[in-house]
Amino acid sequence: MRLGYRPALDGLRAIAISAVVLYHAGGFVPGGYLGVDLFFVLSGFLITTLLLGERADRGSVSLRSFYRRRALRLLPALFFLLATFIVVSTIFAVFGDRALQRDLFGVAAGIGYFANIAMTGEPMTRPMPEELRHLWSLAAEEQFYLLWPPVLFLVLRGRTRLALVVVAAGVALTTLRQLQLYTDGASWQRIGFGVDTRSVSILVGCLLALAITLPRWPRLERARWLEPVAVGCLLAFLFLDLGRELFAGPLLVFAICCTVLIVRALDDRSRLAAVLSLGAVVFLGRISYSLYLWHFPVFGAFGINEQKAELAALPAILVAVACAVTSYYLIELPFLRRKRRPGPTADREASPPEIHSVTLAESRV
Q: Could you tell me the pTM of the whole model?
């Protein structure tokens, strides 16, 4: 399947980031942290689709070009945020009583993509500064993508049916790992931040990308009757807070629900695709990566957390959106244009604001 640019997929990102932001703004959406899993499913689907497309076009995939594209997509906006954070933190350390050592560790964890590992030992320890705790999801996703492209092409050599079996086995094993930790009494943080557990959502997205390449893949309109079911399921999950019980099966159900939404969003004739393609919704999806990066530090500056709604929620959201728009136009877009320049390492991805790894949501911070 040649995706081209699908505005409705940006619309799904808008839903994901809205859920995350409203969750962190005071728990207005109790299950809003699941927005990260919607991002994970989208990411697994899009990246796998693009890798398969590159292989079909060129006969091979350049891992060097893949990781270069990822770096150009993710690092500039992240570095901008971390540089701003460390400057502000240094000022508070010099003129106040803020401990700079913890902030420096948080910056290192953000740059090194190991924030999730640092946080899996919670609630016993809290090594990350509060303003950067949301970077766990970027770390978990990039750790997954260190392995997925080589596994897909160097080991499986493009045999789709074998790849489907391997990914399905990965989904099963990851789900069993969740259940094992759940029954053993592991903390929400251990199960929620670990790449060995939370990556089930990415794997489900990869599975969808492989499935639609099969010759007998059902036509998209046949999933029409599932659309209202998937939308209702999504809303139910977002407005419920399942806690640790999320990892006793519901997370897999949510990921499967997200695949239905993606399939329907790909059908330009569906009502869901029409709603998700509205201009304002698409724009929010385009700035979702920057908004994810900035909303948590801004909320911290306003003294907001997800356990307690405050009057400052609305102005904090507006400031976060302003920071995101600034980051998108001044930092993200110039590097995206550079990433798409013609050449031997050019990015073949058709979606301008495409795969924003983000990952996105937060768990219990």
A: 0.90
